[in-house]
Amino acid sequence: MNSKFIIGLGNIGNEYTDTRHNAGFAILNALKNHYESQEQIHTVSVKKLKSQIFSIPSKKIYLVYPQTYMNLSGFAVRALIDWYKISNLKNLVIVHDDIALPLGQIRWVAKGGAGGQHGIESIIEHLGGNKEFNRLKFGIGPDPGGEKRSKYVLGKFRDDEKEILNKSLNKALKSLNLFLQGSSMSDLMNEFNVSACS
After folding, report:
1. Beta-ladder partners of 106
2. CA distances (Å), 175 to each of 72, 179, 187, in order?
3. Span 170-185, mean pLDDT?
4. Could you tell me the sign of the dihedral formed by the alpha carbons of 78, 79, 81, 82, in that order?
5. Separation in Å, CA 28 to CA 61, 93, 113
6. Is residue 21 flagged as an active site residue?
7. Coarse DSSP helix, strand, coil percentages of the chain, rounded to the nearest 5 percent
């Protein structure tokens, strides 16, 4: 069985905790909490990887939190691929926020452009323009547009959003577990790309 790498995108620092832009970290935290009650989790300490990494040896799973800030995520992903000699990008998933999707909706994609998500732009750049890698997009919209966008994505979820946020996190967690159990991308897309939580 090949190792699987789940890479959540976000910004480091307490001021970014629980912000919309750190949805990738939040989903990884939920996945890590899910496995902590069942499996031994090890910390991987390799400074040059520019990431906080937890491994679950019994499952051959790595949970990866790039520590480069969102817009430089490509440096960490490239370092990870080189260190672990990942030849098949289908064994990794990039988990990130997507302002074009409404809160409550997730979307699996196997390839495509960045759609204005700077972390994905950085990854594509450091993969030499390769856009064929799995992504789990987590909706944080609606997009307020213009000058309000930056403040919105770096803001925390409102109290009235928490119920649908938790439902969406559970949906993302369920879909990641299915990916890790061997579900195909087409099956994941058919099951989870359809409708938003309500």
Report:
1. 138
2. 26, 6, 10
3. 96
4. positive
5. 12, 11, 23
6. yes
7. 45, 25, 35
Is pLDDT at 126 greater than 80 in this prediction? yes
The domain made up of 4-192 is a member of CATH 3.40.50.1470: yes
Running DSSP on this structure, what letter comes out for residue 183?
-
CA 194, 93, 3: angle at the middle one, nearest 5? 130
Predicted TM-score of the model (pTM): 0.96
Q: pLDDT band at residue 198, thresholds of 50, 70 and 90?
A: low
The whole-angstrom separation of Cα 10 and Cα 69 is 6
Give the residue-averaged pLDDT of 128-144: 97
Domain ranges of the chain: 4-192
Q: What are the backbone angles phi and psi of residue 34, rounded to the nearest 5°?
A: -60, -45
Token pair listed for 139: 């909706």
Summarised one tens digit per residue, pLDDT across range 21-31 is: 999 999 999 99
Identify each DSSP E strand in the chain by its residue range.
4-8, 42-44, 51-56, 61-66, 92-102, 106-109, 134-141
Catalytic residue among 21, 96, 118, 126: 21
Instruction: For residue 150, count CB atoms less than 10 angstroms from its CB and return exposed for 0-12, middle for 13-18, buried for 19 or more.
Output: exposed
